[in-house]
Design brief:
- The complex is a heterodimer of chains A (115) and B (115).
- With 115 residues, chain A is mostly beta strands.
- Helix content of chain A is 0%, strand content 53%.
- Chain A has no helices and eleven strands.
- Chain A is globular, with a radius of gyration of 13 Å.
- The mean pLDDT of chain B is 89.
- With 115 residues, chain B is mainly β.
- The chains are: A mainly beta (115), B mainly beta (115).
- The interface between A and B is medium-sized, with 23 and 21 residues.
């Protein structure tokens, strides 16, 4: 079946630095990828929709200059958390929808800790 | 705005007990409905989905869900749970009828099955 690879699975960074998270669809093309954030004991919150070859669509309240999304190819989307702060510490998950398909495949998530 | 409500935060059952997890959504148009499971330390996996047709949907591992349009509900059921079903379960809704619409998640229900 469809597989989405997300890296890194865990990262610790210092305040003020930037962190890049990659999301790859391994055996299918994904015109659209989604980035979610999950707080402890809470649901996944959609941050942005990433479209190949165009600008991402951000949800209300998500700072697009802080959470940079690039979807340069049909199999790769990246999320860069810029100038990270401790409050950015969270679990970030990507999902990809196969072009022309109807299902969503999730990556394994990235645990970001900002110290 | 769309929303998804899962009624139980934590459910504790003994093996062989029957399971029903509630899910209600708020949206008046056409919806696609999903149940995802997240086993400890693993990524989200699709259990089952409803797009159209028979409102009783059968998924993997003996799970099923029934879409009741008049009640805006999509409850998940399993006749006899196993210890290995211990996980967190998320109900999700997509309102774009198969296009690139994103998923809105409920807050999740943690299921603990006692051996």
């Amino acid at each position: 079946g469809a597989v989405v690879s997300q890296h890194p699975s865990r990262v610790i960074c210092k305040s003020g630095t930037s962190v890049k998270i990659e999301c790859r669809s391994l055996d299918f093309q994904a015109t659209t990828m989604f980035w979610y954030r999950q707080f402890p004991k809470q649901s996944l919150m959609l941050m942005a929709t990433s479209n190949e070859g165009s600008k991402a669509t951000y949800e209300q309240g998500v700072e697009k200059d802080k959470f940079l999304i690039n979807h340069a190819s049909l199999t790769l989307s990246t999320l860069t958390v810029t100038s990270a702060h401790p409050e950015d510490s969270s679990f970030y998950i990507c999902s990809a929808r196969e072009t022309g398909g109807s299902g969503y495949t999730f990556g394994s998530g990235t645990r970001l800790t900002v110290v | 705005a769309q929303s998804v409500s899962q009624h139980n935060h934590h459910v504790i059952l003994s093996e062989a007990a029957s399971l029903e997890l509630g899910c209600n959504y708020s949206y008046g148009g056409t919806v696609n409905l999903f149940w995802y499971v997240q086993y400890p330390g693993q990524h989200l996996q699709l259990l089952l989905k409803y797009f159209s047709g028979d409102p009783l949907v059968k998924g993997i591992k003996g799970f099923e869900a029934e879409f009741i349009k008049s009640k805006f509900s999509f409850n998940l059921r399993k006749p006899s749970v196993q210890w290995s079903d211990t996980a967190e379960y998320f109900c999700a809704v997509s309102s774009y009828g198969g296009s690139q619409g994103n998923l809105i998640f409920g807050k999740g229900t943690k299921l603990s099955v006692k051996p």
